[in-house]
Amino acid sequence: MLLTIPAAVTPPWSTMLGFSLLPAVVMIAGAALAVWRAPGPKLRSAILHFAAGVIFSVVAVELLPDIVQHHAPYEVALGFGLGVATMLGLRYFTQRLEKKEEPGAAGNAPAGSAGVTAPPTAAALPWGLLVAIGIDILIDGLLLGIGFAAGAKEGTLLAIALTIELLSLGLATAIELRQDGHGKGRAVAIVAGTSLMLLVGAGIGTTVLRGATGNLLEIVLSFGLAALLFLVTEELLTEAHEETETPLLTLAFFVGFLLFLILGMVA
């Protein structure tokens, strides 16, 4: 029996483009802030906690009720399983990319050059890290497209949530590039380049999913549900917990959740 879901009210392309640009611009702004005055680890942990709470709130308040309402267990199981498998596969792939660069970093000094000072050269780009970040941002863009496929309200709230996440990602990436020896301008430019993957992902998501209804939409929303839960539990909170937990840091998660719970109710 086919599942019947009313078509979501899809916002115009100009609206979706504007909300896709917002996280990308904020990510670049975060990189610029990091090279000018890097935030302390506690502040970054608080941002990560807050972002996790915001995204979890969007999942619980907007996506999950829509999925449960239509009682399609087979479609939900398929979409959710595909989402988990995709995120685990991407994690495995990106971790391998990053590990490939680690041995090479220590083996760049030429043999037999003791006592000879090599001329300064530009720092090599950490391609493993950048590819991993690019894939992460591409998935964020696809999730944004899924959010707008569910409706204008869901897409808007998810865009704001991803904006907070990408602020933290822009800060962290710029700091990493500066530690690798890249100049301030180059670090910001590299972050700006990777942020374009968000627009690519959002464009693909909204193009493919525009007008999706019925069983397909239920599978897509379940896929997005799994991917967002993975993002919160295995990425944002994992990184946030690298800093020693304090009551204030924990509180940031619940503030983010409550803020978007209320925003979802009154919007």
From TrEMBL:
<feature type="transmembrane region" description="Helical">
    <location>
        <begin position="215"/>
        <end position="236"/>
    </location>
</feature>
<keyword id="KW-0812">Transmembrane</keyword>
<keyword id="KW-1133">Transmembrane helix</keyword>
<feature type="transmembrane region" description="Helical">
    <location>
        <begin position="248"/>
        <end position="266"/>
    </location>
</feature>
<keyword id="KW-0472">Membrane</keyword>
<keyword id="KW-0614">Plasmid</keyword>
<feature type="transmembrane region" description="Helical">
    <location>
        <begin position="46"/>
        <end position="64"/>
    </location>
</feature>
<feature type="transmembrane region" description="Helical">
    <location>
        <begin position="187"/>
        <end position="209"/>
    </location>
</feature>
<feature type="transmembrane region" description="Helical">
    <location>
        <begin position="127"/>
        <end position="150"/>
    </location>
</feature>
<protein>
    <submittedName>
        <fullName>ZIP family metal transporter</fullName>
    </submittedName>
</protein>
<feature type="transmembrane region" description="Helical">
    <location>
        <begin position="156"/>
        <end position="175"/>
    </location>
</feature>
<feature type="transmembrane region" description="Helical">
    <location>
        <begin position="12"/>
        <end position="34"/>
    </location>
</feature>
<feature type="transmembrane region" description="Helical">
    <location>
        <begin position="76"/>
        <end position="93"/>
    </location>
</feature>
